[in-house]
Each structure stands twice: as structure tokens, then as C-alpha cells.
């Protein structure tokens, strides 16, 4: 597993602007989005929520920690996927 790659599943409110706000945060810290998927049909989601799967390229471990910290500070619920 490359120390530069990071894959996350992020739960967010499914409303106009949510995805833009999320990607703006990633841009703010310089994380490069390689692939992104948006799912609002999963039975595991609460009504009005969506899961965004995002594959990022980062500068390394410390940069990944910065991404995690920023997402937590802004109230995003996420898990890392391998």
C-alpha cells in the first residue's frame, strides 16, 4: 500500500453544495482527488444522507493526518477503506 494513497467513505447530507464544500476542504489542504463516487441509494444510509467514496493522492502520512483532522473539524463522518 502506497503511503501517498488514501481512500475514504464519507457520509454527508445530500443537498446542493455538500459535495462542493467537501471537495473545497480537500483542495484547501492540497489533496488530489483521483476518483470520486456518490451514492444516495444505500439501505444503510439515513434519509437525506449520501456516501461519497473518494480516492486521494496525498504527500504522505503527515498530509493524510492533516486531511483526517480537517474533515473531523468540519463534522464529516468518514472511514478509511482499503
Structural summary, described in words:
By secondary structure, the protein is α+β, with helices and mostly antiparallel strands. It is 29% helix and 37% strand. The protein has one domain (5-80): 2-Layer Sandwich (Alpha-Beta Plaits), CATH 3.30.70. The chain has two helices and four strands. Strands 2-3-1-4 form a four-stranded antiparallel β-sheet, with helices on one face. The longest helix has 13 residues, at 61-73. The mean pLDDT is 93.
Could you name the key traits of this structure?
82 residues, alpha+beta, Alpha-Beta Plaits, four-stranded antiparallel β-sheet, 2 helices, 4 strands, 37% strand, globular
In terms of topology, how is this protein built?
Blueprint lengths: L4 E9 L4 H11 L3 E8 L9 E9 L3 H13 L3 E4 L2
CATH class descriptor name: Alpha Beta
Percentage of helical residues? Answer: 25-40%
Mean pLDDT: 93
Give the tally of structural domains: 1
The CATH topology assignment is Alpha-Beta Plaits
As laid out across the biggest beta sheet, the strand order is 2-3-1-4
Tell me the strand percentage band.
35-45%
Order of helices and strands: EHEEHE
The DSSP helix count reads: 2
Could you give the count of β-strands? Answer: 4
The low-confidence runs, each spanning 5 or more residues with pLDDT under 50, are none
CATH architecture call: 2-Layer Sandwich
| N- to C-terminal distance | 9 Å
Protein structure class: alpha+beta
Give Rg in angstroms: 12 Å
CATH superfamily: ACT domain
Largest sheet: 4 strands, antiparallel
Shape: globular
Amino acid at each position: 500500500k502506497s503511503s501517498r494513497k488514501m481512500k475514504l467513505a464519507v457520509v454527508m447530507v445530500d443537498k446542493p453544495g455538500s459535495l462542493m464544500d467537501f471537495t473545497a476542504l480537500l483542495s484547501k489542504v492540497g489533496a488530489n482527488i483521483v476518483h470520486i463516487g456518490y451514492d444516495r441509494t444505500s439501505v444503510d444510509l439515513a434519509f437525506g444522507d449520501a456516501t461519497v467514496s473518494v480516492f486521494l493522492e496525498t504527500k504522505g502520512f503527515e498530509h493524510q493526518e492533516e486531511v483526517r483532522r480537517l474533515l473531523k473539524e468540519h463534522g464529516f463522518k468518514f472511514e478509511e477503506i482499503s
